[in-house]
């Protein structure tokens, strides 16, 4: 019981105190031949429940005991009898509000008492799953990681910059963008009939479709990086934290079509500074959870992954391994032989082999072949590799992708052309190199992958409130 017992002055109640508590019944049972009931009440603030005792003279017990019922009650806190697990219980004197359960044939309560799989829950009742112990703990951990993120960057003097969600450029150059249109574009076939109707926007005698709204084809952002660079090249170190979108056909437990990304951009920083920042940030997140979210982490250890806390301890205290891509390939060739050669992108089995078998801790792989990385990464002197780095962690694989940015005008221009990207779309980006170009670096941390790593859950779809993936964008 943490916030569930709140006094009007915001303090935490003690035995003997009169308090009000509100929450949802986890379990309720009538006792003493129906003379009173025990309720386990939870308001989502912590994994523990408040034990509540209600006499039949105070409320109709059959109405108040079903799982899921909302109860707002006033009473006095009592010390429970010796040997009880509870530290304190609430003896109700007055029920202020009840939000009942309609558990009928037509509408049976959708969450069964018995444990159900996260997959069934996600598919059938994604909107009710915050009522389960697991998802509510995940969401509190997610909240803590989000608070820790702002704390870390603010503490180190980074400015929070909100980069746009609707954009006209493809940051990663991978063509995995969702296009933005208006509802009217759906009406293509009905053009004639629609034109007659009042209120439909028209331009030069034609219906004004979505693409015309911005006068250019617009998309949902895959990363805020390029826009962030224009702020880093004026305000020094900045970061953004927002939703990003990828239209990739990845049906894996590590990919979402809509995910949140934390992206810092560091002015006056090279690849080593970038790796140092990434490592310090991930360590800070792990330590934060140990210091501020231990009860939820203990829940994870008991119910989801018994190594979850050990993993946080290890990561927060052990230096990450740093290894070049070339050296990583040499190690992988020993194990995977012909399936691996210099120039390939690392597959998740390779990432897991490095972090779980060889080094048994996070590994930063850097200096990747330029052919498998984005155009904006700084070309190394060997002209074969770029100053890129990925942070790989046990269980999850790639958690962070980052790089030193190409700050040389001639080189970046050449790389854009080489990548087959339209130069005119990136002309504004070249301005950053034309006028006062500066060394700078940054990275993106996949926020859901961090939640996955912390909680020990198996599927990324269970660590975001409403997951979007190929075939699913419900509610
Ligand atoms: O490696 P990525 O593609 O890097 C970028 O987008 C850079 N522009 C970031 C930067 O330098 N500012 O993506 C960064 C991270 C990945 O390491 C991964 O953790 C996560 O974002 N990520 C995804 N997470 C969930 N679902 C997906 N489909 C993801 N794609 C990338
Ligand atoms: Mg990447």
TrEMBL record:
<keyword id="KW-0436">Ligase</keyword>
<dbReference type="Pfam" id="PF00152">
    <property type="entry name" value="tRNA-synt_2"/>
</dbReference>
<protein>
    <recommendedName>
        <fullName>asparagine--tRNA ligase</fullName>
        <ecNumber>6.1.1.22</ecNumber>
    </recommendedName>
</protein>
<dbReference type="InterPro" id="IPR045864">
    <property type="entry name" value="aa-tRNA-synth_II/BPL/LPL"/>
</dbReference>
<dbReference type="GO" id="GO:0004816">
    <property type="term" value="F:asparagine-tRNA ligase activity"/>
</dbReference>
<dbReference type="InterPro" id="IPR004364">
    <property type="entry name" value="Aa-tRNA-synt_II"/>
</dbReference>
<dbReference type="GO" id="GO:0005524">
    <property type="term" value="F:ATP binding"/>
</dbReference>
<dbReference type="GO" id="GO:0003676">
    <property type="term" value="F:nucleic acid binding"/>
</dbReference>
<dbReference type="InterPro" id="IPR002312">
    <property type="entry name" value="Asp/Asn-tRNA-synth_IIb"/>
</dbReference>
<dbReference type="InterPro" id="IPR006195">
    <property type="entry name" value="aa-tRNA-synth_II"/>
</dbReference>
<keyword id="KW-0030">Aminoacyl-tRNA synthetase</keyword>
<feature type="domain" description="Aminoacyl-transfer RNA synthetases class-II family profile">
    <location>
        <begin position="139"/>
        <end position="465"/>
    </location>
</feature>
<comment type="similarity">
    <text>Belongs to the class-II aminoacyl-tRNA synthetase family.</text>
</comment>
<keyword id="KW-0067">ATP-binding</keyword>
<dbReference type="Pfam" id="PF01336">
    <property type="entry name" value="tRNA_anti-codon"/>
</dbReference>
<dbReference type="GO" id="GO:0006421">
    <property type="term" value="P:asparaginyl-tRNA aminoacylation"/>
</dbReference>
<dbReference type="InterPro" id="IPR004522">
    <property type="entry name" value="Asn-tRNA-ligase"/>
</dbReference>
<dbReference type="GO" id="GO:0005739">
    <property type="term" value="C:mitochondrion"/>
</dbReference>
<keyword id="KW-0648">Protein biosynthesis</keyword>
<keyword id="KW-0547">Nucleotide-binding</keyword>
<dbReference type="InterPro" id="IPR004365">
    <property type="entry name" value="NA-bd_OB_tRNA"/>
</dbReference>
<dbReference type="InterPro" id="IPR012340">
    <property type="entry name" value="NA-bd_OB-fold"/>
</dbReference>
């Amino acid at each position: 019981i943490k916030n569930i017992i709140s006094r009007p002055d915001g303090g935490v109640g003690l035995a003997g105190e009169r308090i009000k508590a509100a929450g949802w019944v986890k379990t309720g049972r009538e006792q003493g031949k129906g003379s009173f009931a025990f309720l386990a009440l939870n308001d989502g603030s912590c994994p523990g429940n408040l034990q509540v005792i209600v006499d039949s003279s105070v409320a109709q017990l059959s109405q108040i005991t079903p799982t899921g019922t909302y109860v707002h009650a006033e009473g006095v806190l009592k010390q429970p009898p010796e040997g009880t697990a509870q530290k304190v219980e609430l003896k109700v004197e007055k029920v202020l509000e009840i939000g009942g359960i309609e558990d009928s044939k037509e509408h049976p309560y959708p969450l069964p008492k018995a444990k159900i799989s996260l997959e069934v829950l996600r598919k059938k009742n994604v909107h009710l799953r915050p009522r389960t112990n697991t998802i509510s703990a995940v969401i509190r951990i997610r909240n803590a990681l989000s608070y820790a993120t702002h704390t870390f960057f603010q503490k180190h003097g980074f400015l929070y910059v909100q980069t746009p969600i609707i954009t006209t450029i493809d940051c990663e150059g991978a063509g995995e963008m969702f296009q933005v249109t208006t509802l009217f574009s759906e009406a293509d076939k009905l053009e004639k009939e629609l034109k007659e109707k009042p209120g439909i926007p028209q331009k030069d005698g034609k219906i004004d479709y979505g693409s015309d709204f911005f006068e250019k084809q617009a998309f949902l952002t895959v990363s805020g990086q390029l826009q962030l660079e224009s702020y880093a090249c004026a305000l020094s170190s900045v970061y953004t934290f927002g939703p990003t979108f990828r239209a990739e056909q990845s049906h894996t437990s590590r990919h979402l079509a809509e995910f949140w990304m934390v992206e810092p951009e560091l002015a006056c920083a090279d690849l080593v500074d970038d790796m140092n920042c990434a490592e310090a940030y991930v360590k800070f997140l792990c330590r934060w959870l140990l210091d501020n979210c231990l009860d939820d982490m203990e829940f994870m250890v008991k119910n989801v992954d018994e190594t979850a806390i050990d993993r946080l301890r290890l990561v927060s205290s052990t230096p990450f391994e740093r290894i070049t891509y070339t050296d990583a390939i040499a190690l992988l060739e020993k194990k995977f032989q012909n399936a691996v050669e210099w120039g390939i992108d690392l597959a998740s089995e390779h990432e897991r082999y490095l972090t779980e078998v060889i080094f048994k801790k996070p590994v930063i792989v850097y200096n990747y072949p330029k052919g498998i990385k984005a155009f904006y990464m700084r070309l190394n002197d060997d002209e074969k590799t770029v100053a890129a780095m990925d942070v790989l962690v046990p269980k999850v694989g790639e958690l962070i992708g980052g790089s030193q940015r190409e700050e040389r005008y001639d080189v970046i221009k050449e790389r854009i052309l080489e990548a087959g990207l339209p130069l005119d779309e990136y002309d504004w980006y070249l301005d950053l190199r034309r006028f006062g170009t500066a060394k700078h670096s940054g990275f993106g941390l996949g926020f859901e992958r961090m939640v996955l790593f912390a909680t020990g859950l198996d599927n990324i779809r269970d660590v975001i409130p409403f997951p979007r993936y190929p075939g699913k964008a419900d509610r």
